[in-house]
């Protein structure tokens, strides 16, 4: 599976309150949440983002609360994947569980600039900066995590393993 | 093995667990709240199995936007209430409720040696009781509700040792803010934290809850304390369940050991917009404030209210600011009432609210306008955390927050006449 899109770049420690503010947690529909994605730190995000675009972030992306609304809002805004130097632990689980691919690669983050066109091959973890011509390789996922991703999320993965599930 | 490794090994049928091991872990308690439960319920229903694995081990608490702040939050709370009723879960209605991380220990549900997972990042609070407790998202919790198990990667453990005895106004909040300031908001990313040392041995249970609660603010997966006489005293009368106590081995391997001299740690203030922007109150400079909030899963327990009352007794909060005090549970509220603390607060000109997470996350009961500054005993000071994106949050202990409320600026209680 590959994705191609324009990159939107952010700094370190982007917290889940910045991704989706708590005042919107009185709803849980993906489309409604997406309408407020990144609103407090980047009010123009939604007007710039096109389907397939990529978020590129420095260290500890998604720190703070456990709200799954954060990866859900990012995915529903049209973002295809996030490339980061590192991800906060709960955000990482939530993204994998809800089908938002994350790629960990310091060199790619250092090289990619705001607005660069980047192509990502999820199966191999290859990140190609089409604007600069450079190629990078992200850290591979453990096998079972790749299975969760290819199943389409944790619920689909668990359903396959649960004897009682319909 | 470290304390975290011991508990995880016992809950995954293994003799030994090492950092990086992928485990399927048995859960003793599975928690969610009015914000995270709606998604967990939706995902649970998508799993296609009729019943949760064990209704007595699944707890739902309406605390974030409850009592309901608007129609949408009322709808989410209703969804949770109905699901909890249908499935026969452990559920606390508004009249007996409180902030989840205050009431679960209080009611004897969180116990030493357990694995507790919760769809709330501050689930790590129960590490104060010697449990392995960690926050997750709603979908993880849906799977844990269905199967009673969850996958985890065994974390490395960072040991923080606090030598000496802290000064009069330095509490658990200051030790943990100082630690986060030292190691950074990702200093314990993917790691468990173990807290030890003389200062910890003498720390009250409420102080330990405060420290474990904020392990997540350093990126920690869990924050653990060993069970001692303080823990046992706290648990007495709260539970009849036989709990298992685990101890770290003498030769346990830690990824890092950090030593602090607690006697040198002054009361701390975390400046906007990260909990790691901590500095001593004495170096805060002149920072006028518009609001003081005392409460939350971090500092909403009886000892916290006693500290605030000790400072506010016979004094008045600055008339230009709002001081809002939120007992963490109905039990805390009642105890504070019996001790006369509530009267102290009202006479001082503070507003006392029913238990809720409300203002901590800019939900209700104390949302900030543009340009406003709040000193708060809560746990996060991110951009827009308590309201407008152009508002500011300063984190502190309850005595410092109360003193600041009196003086109208960030101040330590020693500055009061």
The N- and C-terminal alpha carbons of chain A lie at a distance of 28 Å
Arithmetic mean pLDDT of chain B: 97
- Low-confidence parts of chain A, pLDDT < 50 over ≥5 residues? none
List the total number of helices of chain B: 14
**Are there runs of chain B of 5+ residues with pLDDT below 50, and where?**
none
Report the span from N to C terminus of chain B. 51 Å
Radius of gyration from the alpha-carbon trace of chain A, in angstroms: 15 Å
Task: Explain briefly what this protein structure is.
By secondary structure, chain A is of the alpha/beta class. Chain A has eight helices and seven strands, in the order βαααβαβαβαβββαα.
Features:
heterodimer, A: 166 residues, alpha/beta, seven-stranded mixed beta sheet, 8 helices, B: 417 residues, five-stranded parallel beta sheet, 14 helices, 18 strands, 18% strand, globular
Helix-strand layout with pairing:
The complex is a heterodimer of chains A (166) and B (417).
Chain A: E1 2-10, H1 16-19, H2 30-34, H3 45-48, E2 54-57, H4 69-76, E3 81-84, H5 89-98, E4 102-104, H6 106-111, E5 117-121, E6 126-129, E7 135-137, H7 143-151, H8 154-161
Parallel strand pairs in A: 1-2, 2-3, 3-4
Antiparallel strand pairs in A: 1-5, 5-6, 6-7
Chain B: H1 3-10, E1 22-26, E2 29-33, H2 37-47, E3 58-61, H3 71-87, E4 90-91, H4 100-106, E5 115-118, E6 132-135, H5 138-147, E7 149-153, E8 156-163, H6 172-183, E9 191-196, H7 198-201, H8 205-213, E10 222-224, H9 229-235, E11 256-261, E12 268-270, E13 278-280, E14 291-294, H10 296-299, H11 302-312, E15 322-325, H12 330-338, H13 341-348, E16 351-352, E17 373-376, E18 392-395, H14 398-407
Parallel strand pairs in B: 2-3, 2-5, 3-4, 5-6, 8-9, 8-11, 9-10, 14-15, 14-17, 15-16, 17-18
Antiparallel strand pairs in B: 1-7, 12-13
Helix pairs in contact in B: 2-5, 6-8, 11-13, 11-14
């Amino acid at each position: 599976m590959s994705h191609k899109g324009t990159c939107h770049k952010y700094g370190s420690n982007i917290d889940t309150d910045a991704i989706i503010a708590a005042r919107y947690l009185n709803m849980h529909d993906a489309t409604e949440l997406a309408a407020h994605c990144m609103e407090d730190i980047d009010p123009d995000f939604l007007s710039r983002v096109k389907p397939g675009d990529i978020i590129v972030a420095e260290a500890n992306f998604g720190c703070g609360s456990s709200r799954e609304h954060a990866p859900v809002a990012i995915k529903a805004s049209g973002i295809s994947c996030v490339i980061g130097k590192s991800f906060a632990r709960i955000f990482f689980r939530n993204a994998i569980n809800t089908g938002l691919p994350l790629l960990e690669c310091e060199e790619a983050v250092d090289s990619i600039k705001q607005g660069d066109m980047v192509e990502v091959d999820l199966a191999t973890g290859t990140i190609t900066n089409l604007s600069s011509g450079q190629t990078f390789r992200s850290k591979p996922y453990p096998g079972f995590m790749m299975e969760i991703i290819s199943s389409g999320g944790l619920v689909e993965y668990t359903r396959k393993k649960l004897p009682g599930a319909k | 093995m470290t304390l975290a490794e011991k508990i995880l090994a016992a809950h995954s049928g293994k003799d030994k667990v090492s950092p990086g091991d992928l485990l399927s872990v048995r859960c003793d308690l599975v928690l969610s709240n009015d914000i995270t439960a709606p998604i967990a319920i939706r995902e649970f229903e998508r799993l296609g199995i009729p019943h949760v694995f064990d209704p007595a081990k699944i707890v739902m608490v309406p605390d974030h936007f409850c009592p309901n702040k608007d129609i949408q939050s009322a709808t989410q709370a209703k969804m949770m209430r109905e699901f909890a009723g249908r499935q026969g879960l452990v559920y606390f209605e508004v009249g007996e409720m409180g902030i989840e991380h205050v009431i679960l220990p209080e009611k004897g549900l969180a116990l030493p040696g357990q694995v507790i997972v919760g769809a709330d990042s501050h689930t790590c609070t129960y590490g104060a009781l010697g449990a392995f407790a960690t926050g997750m998202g709603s979908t993880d919790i849906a799977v844990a509700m269905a199967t009673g198990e969850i996958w985890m990667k065994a974390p490395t453990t960072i040991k923080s040792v606090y030598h000496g005895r802290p000064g009069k106004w330095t509490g658990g909040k200051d030790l943990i803010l100082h630690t986060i300031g030292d190691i950074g908001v990702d200093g314990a990313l993917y790691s468990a934290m173990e807290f030890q040392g003389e200062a910890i041995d003498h720390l009250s249970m409420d102080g330990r809850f405060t420290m474990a609660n904020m392990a997540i603010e350093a990126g920690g997966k869990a924050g653990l304390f060993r069970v001692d006489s303080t823990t046992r005293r706290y648990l007495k009368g709260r539970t009849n369940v036989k709990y298992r106590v685990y101890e770290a081995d003498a030769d346990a391997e830690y990824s890092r050991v950090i030593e602090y001299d607690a006697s040198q740690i002054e009361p701390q203030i975390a400046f906007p917009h990260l909990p790691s922007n901590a500095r001593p109150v004495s170096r805060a400079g002149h920072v006028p404030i518009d609001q003081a909030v005392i409460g939350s899963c971090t500092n909403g327990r009886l000892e916290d209210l006693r500290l605030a009352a000790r400072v506010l007794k016979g004094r008045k909060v600055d008339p230009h600011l709002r001081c809002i005090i939120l007992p963490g549970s109905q039990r805390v509220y009642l105890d504070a009432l019996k001790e006369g603390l509530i009267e102290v607060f009202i006479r001082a000109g503070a507003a006392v609210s029913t238990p809720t997470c409300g203002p901590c996350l800019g939900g209700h009961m104390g949302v900030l306008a543009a340009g406003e500054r709040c000193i708060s005993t809560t746990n996060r000071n991110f951009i827009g955390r308590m309201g407008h994106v152009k508002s500011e949050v300063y984190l502190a202990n309850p005595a410092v927050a109360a003193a600041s409320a009196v003086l109208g600026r960030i101040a330590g209680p020693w500055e009061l006449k």
